[in-house]
Amino acid sequence: MRFPLVLFFLQFSLLSIHSEFSQHRTEILAADGSYVLHWSIDYVAKVVRFNATVATRGYVGFGISPSGGMTGADIVIGGIFENGTAYFSDRHAVGESLPIVDKAQNWDLLNATETTDGVTTLIFERAFNTCDDEDVVLSNDTTNFIWAYSPTNSDDVVYHTSGFRGTLTVQPLDPEVPPLDPGHWSQYDIKHTMTMPDADTTYWCTIHRSPVFTEKHHIVAFEPLLTSSEAIAHTHHYNIFRCTPPDGVDAETFFGPHVDAGVGGECYVAQPEVPTAYCQTMFYNWAVGGRTLVLPPNIGYPIGETGNPVDYYMFEIHYNNPTRLQNVTFETGAIIYYTPELRQHDAGLMVVAHHTSLSLTVPPNSTGFKTAGHCDSACTEEYLPEEGINVFAIFLHAHLSGRKMKFRQFRGDQELPWAANDDTYDFEFQQTRPLSKELKILRGDHLTMECTYDTTWYDQSKVVIGGLSTTNEMCQSIFWYYPRAELRDCRSEYPTEEIFAKFGIESANRSTPYEDAIITAPTSLAGMSYTEVLNTRVDWTSELRKAIEQDSLTRPHVGVCWTASETKNIDQIGYPSGIVREYAPRDECNSSLANRLVLTVPIFLGMIFSLIEIV
Ligand SMILES: *[C@@H]1O[C@H](CO)[C@@H](O)[C@H](O)[C@H]1NC(C)=O
Ligand SMILES: *[C@@H]1O[C@H](CO)[C@@H](O)[C@H](O)[C@H]1NC(C)=O
Ligand SMILES: *[C@@H]1O[C@H](CO)[C@@H](O)[C@H](O)[C@H]1NC(C)=O
Ligand SMILES: *[C@@H]1O[C@H](CO)[C@@H](O)[C@H](O)[C@H]1NC(C)=O
Ligand SMILES: *[C@@H]1O[C@H](CO)[C@@H](O)[C@H](O)[C@H]1NC(C)=O
Ligand SMILES: *[C@@H]1O[C@H](CO)[C@@H](O)[C@H](O)[C@H]1NC(C)=O
Ligand SMILES: *[C@@H]1O[C@H](CO)[C@@H](O)[C@H](O)[C@H]1NC(C)=O
Ligand SMILES: *[C@@H]1O[C@H](CO)[C@@H](O)[C@H](O)[C@H]1NC(C)=O
Fold first, then answer.
1. Where is the signal peptide, in residue numbers (predicted)?
2. Order of strands, edge to edge, in the sheet holding 446-454?
3. Cα separation of 339 and 546, whole Å?
4. Most buried of the four, 86, 113, 312, 523, by CB within 10 Å?
């Protein structure tokens, strides 16, 4: 009787290695529908299977390009010859020319068909990481799909003409988002129409109200509402916050007049027109490139709970108008979908960030300048529920100089795998990214948001500082989780006084933390702005650059965390001490014996134990 059991086990283990394609994604690559790509992801076997369905009887090209162009792209070209034989090759491009065939062929063609009415379908597969320098790695990094096909039904692969090629920015390993189901959901919108101010950067805030709810509902989806090309071109991002009136004040009395007035005012000024201080709970955010957000089927964002029949919101729009256009009027908004059919879990949102302030100072012409903001364990310890929280989506936010974004998590003496890591962050493509595996955050975990900037594209003689404009920087993550907890925002910064001291600044006058400061002492610098001093009076040696980066990463930060009702200030925070092992993704391409043993020994032991158990 032992023999069949062993066989059964072996068969089972083979099956579980080649588990299954658990996620299925689709993109219409050519706007006219002539090139449709489906792809399925197997996270266990780490394989992606593509299905390119293209309106041609000639060749079909598909590629993955970190830069978006041909250069550096990993490309396959395939099709079916007149005589019915299929062809397919793994190639790479070194320029805007016919891609070169790779020495190793790592993409596998599984099927090729061509219909008489002229549709070619290619099914092909590849590993996330083929360990071939002539291929690119598929990871959680933002990348681009590039595509092309023969406009003349030709199998003679020539360098493709325009009109039959294109690029799509994509995060290829992200799971699919459930479909929008407007037929079954109710909706309301939060929107604002106005003439965009003719300033480079404007943060405009208006107050809005939800419909009246007589019982609790769940919000299940958010869809951006940008109805014109102007709205798409000039709405850099927006945040919608929920509002809570001061104690003992009726919400309608407090917020109603602002809703009815409708005009709003600038957000980050000393005395804003609207009560921004009472609208601090992040509700939804969107940024350039962002798509519809549909929550997983077991999760809803609660609204209309007892005592709160109407929700009030502050809608903060970041208008980006670098050429200072005048008289441009458009509508910006969001559609909120909700249902009375309550789901299993209530969702919440939380921010982990570096403060947006002068403490974030990037030396001129920097490549790879890193900064980090911390959410100290004291915050998670005090404000998370005992069973912890489960994160299901993350949005990472930086401005034009942001290049790499990493969300780190530390527990005890270990660093856990990165929940989000994008080494090719794309400012033009900011998404609330669903996680393929939910992330657990427990009480006492320390969270760190790391951002890396490149400012060589900017005026090479000027520093970049933290601030609101897209040419200033931010370092933020906003994540969606359940069950809803008290903690809503957690940040830190290297004390601004310390960075001032490095440049001989004794005191400065700032009306808000977001603005450049005016030096008040010493007298030799008085009247100059902080950036003016840094741009004209500082000799940016490589030692100074390194010192700024190192000190802001390693010297104690001042931190803060907020709940709806409390603010907790924490001094002397930084990377947790006593971490014995930092997380490092496994190098799948290291063929050294030591590296392979690390992997195979546990599998081997596991097999032996399973056999013993069966026997
Ligand atoms: C490939 O996609 C096409 C439509 O886009 C579909 O009709 C076809 O069934 C798919 N093939 C496979 C093997 O999934
Ligand atoms: C089919 O056509 C291609 C291209 O002309 C040629 O290379 C290939 O040998 C042909 N195959 C057969 C089976 O005739
Ligand atoms: C290829 O796909 C076609 C159409 O879906 C199917 O009829 C055929 O059996 C497939 N061939 C192989 C080798 O899988
Ligand atoms: C903007 O509109 C106003 C009023 O319609 C008009 O007087 C003004 O000339 C316009 N400005 C520009 C730059 O078009
Ligand atoms: C991508 O992120 C997910 C979390 O959503 C993580 O589980 C996975 O290991 C990451 N994949 C790679 C290839 O880094
Ligand atoms: C900025 O750095 C690049 C190399 O990274 C260098 O070529 C360029 O000269 C630098 N610019 C200035 C103004 O120093
Ligand atoms: C600081 O700025 C405020 C307004 O921006 C101004 O009223 C005040 O005089 C300034 N203080 C100094 C010392 O310059
Ligand atoms: C391969 O892995 C081994 C053991 O994990 C490590 O010592 C070695 O440095 C790695 N080699 C490379 C090229 O990464």
1. 1-19
2. 367-375, 446-454, 402-411, 414-422
3. 53
4. 312
Using the mean position of ligand 4's atoms as its centre, give its distance from the Cα of residue 235 in Å.
Answer: 21
Note whether 397 and 478 are within 8 A (CB).
yes
Of 346, 376, 408, the residue that ends a domain is: 346
Domain that holds residue 25: 21-170
Q: What is the predicted pLDDT for the residue at 595?
A: 59
Any domain includes 601: no
Residue 594 has what pLDDT? 60
What is the reported pLDDT for 613?
Answer: 47
Instruction: Give nearest CA residue, ligand 1 atom 4.
Output: 53
Q: What pLDDT score does 507 carry?
A: 95
Domain of 131: which CATH number? 2.60.40.1210
Q: Are residues 355 and 495 in the same domain?
A: yes
CB 154 near ligand 2, within 6 Å: no
- Among 170, 201, 217, give the residue marking a domain's end: 170
For a ligand 1 pocket test, name from 113, 121, 122, 124 the mutation site with the most ligand atoms within 8 angstroms of its C-beta: 121
* Model pTM score: 0.87
Shared domain for 185 and 164, answered yes or no, is no
Provide DSSP, 245-302: PPTT--HHHHHHHHHHH---EESSSSS-SS-GGG--EEEEEEETT---EE--TTEEEE
Mean pLDDT for each 10-residue chunk of the chain (615 residues)? 39 49 93 95 96 96 94 96 96 91 97 95 98 96 96 80 81 93 93 96 96 96 94 93 91 96 90 88 87 94 90 95 96 97 96 95 97 97 96 94 97 95 91 94 98 96 91 94 94 95 94 86 96 96 96 96 93 93 90 60 48 46
Q: Is the CB of 22 under 6 A from ligand 2?
A: no
- How high is the pLDDT of residue 157? 81
Domain contains 104: yes
Count of structural domains, the chain = 3
Q: What residue's CA is closest to ligand 8, atom 5? A: 595
SS3 sequence of 67-110: CCCCCCCEEEEEEECCCCCEEEEEEECCCCCCCEECCCCCCEEE
CATH number of residue 319's parent domain: 2.60.120.310
Do 199 and 280 fall into the same domain?
Answer: yes
Starting from the CA of residue 110, give the closest ligand. Answer: 3
203 is catalytic: yes
From the CA of 109, which ligand is nearest?
3
Whose C-alpha lies nearest to ligand 6, atom 13?
460
Helix (H) or strand (E) holding 548: helix 542-554
Report the pLDDT value the prediction gives residue 606, as an integer from 0 to 100.
Answer: 47
- Domain identity same for 139 and 250: no
378 and 281 belong to one structural domain: no
Q: Are residues 337 and 352 in the same domain?
A: no
CA distance 324 to 332: 18
Among the options 35, 59, 149, 203, which is catalytic?
203
Please check whether residues 310 and 356 belong to one and the same domain.
Answer: no
